[in-house]
Write a structure and sequence with these properties.
globular; mainly alpha; 2 domains; 499 residues
Amino acid sequence: MSQVKTIIKDSAVYTASTILAQFIGIFTSIAMRRFLTPEMMGVWTTLQVILNYALFAELGVFTAIEVKIPYLRGKNLVSEIQNMRNTALTFAVMISLAIALVLFSASFILIGRMPDYVILGIRVVALIIVATFFYNLYIVMLRADKSFFLLSNAIVANSILMLFFVSVLTYFYKLKGLYFATFLATLTSWVFIKFRTKYKLKLYFNTKLARSLSGIGLPILLAGITYTILLSVDKIMIIKMIGPKELGFYSIAILALTYAHNFPKLLGTVLLPSMQEEFGRNDSKERVLQYVKQPMIIIAYVFPAVLAIAYFGIPILVHYVLPKYVMGIGSMKMLLCGCFFISLVPLTHNFIITINKQVMLIPVTLAAVLYGIAINYGVIKMGYGISGVALGTSFTYFLYFAALFFYVMRYCENLREVCKSFLRICAPFVYFLITMLLLEHFVKINSIVKRTIVQALIFYIVYAPVLWYINNRTKVIYRLLKGIAAVSPKKEVFLNEAL
């Protein structure tokens, strides 16, 4: 199977499994809140904070092996890969047990100061942390080994197990049942992956290797945290300066952003190990850059059609199912503009990580955070509300993407070529934006359903030539619709071919 077909197949399977897991997760969340009181949910949410912060104790080691294993595989250094896996395993054992011991000790100190159910929660969270460390280790190894079919099965299995254990144990034992449900679901998911992968791991620790891995992975981890803050700036500014009610309206925009850019984000995860392997084989930045340019062009030309689904579909959903949130539709439409650019960012991150320049991501992302705070502060003070925040956030995402794009492309192209590539990436978005503005201005029908249907039909007719063009050059839509096996070998287009 050609590389492009494999990447498309892996991306489709990985995305579908993630969406399915999120859908199952909705029912899990409903089950939790149905069987627990708000006070109990508050206790569990607090304990989850402990869990989330404890997982940072891996110090980037797990993140690093996801990057280094495919790189070493590209250089055919199998023995070093095994040493890396064993060191990561031993590190996970040491750190997770140390954290568990601290939490167990703290639980005894807190006896008499906190309710018994909180003490029990701290002790079970200690066990959850140990299980989660091993589960996360195997997840990153699956990604590094490009075992996306098994990874997809594991993600769905974990969500099903969580729903099952939470529904049964929480129903009978309330908050205590939730503690053990989470532990059992995580532990069972890890055991499932362990026996399916059959990695022959053993306890082995190389201090120098562990420091090297942390040196590689910690900046990536910190950059990830900073990036998460960037994606949260709009929400933070709204809750601080406007209030929770407006943030509730804005949640419609957040919902659209979260689900609309799932596929581009997961595509970046699928591409990363292939980029590392390519770089390991020849240390060529030019070859690796093709894993950025061509997928980025494909996303830029296809993604507006996906954004249009959210643009037209969510207002109808809100109007008939969530009418109290209708005030958030305007901000949702504006934030979809930023969604286009932020969805292209993971590909630039991949290149920067591949060439081991991940440290620079931290100051660039921090600068974007500060700019986001400043522009959102300004639009709120000027009275533009959540729609202004959505527009300001979209512009922040545009500038952040532009900065990373020019940084990445300048490694292999002159400034003139970079500018041409940038305009080529932005062209379908500009076409999308102009089409939407014209539709809003000229197509005015009182019935929201009729108006949306007419606007959607006109948009897809007008945008069809763009989709035809990119499909004619890459066959990407044909492959997605007809299936990987149906593609003729004579028509294969590899990622390293020029469009």
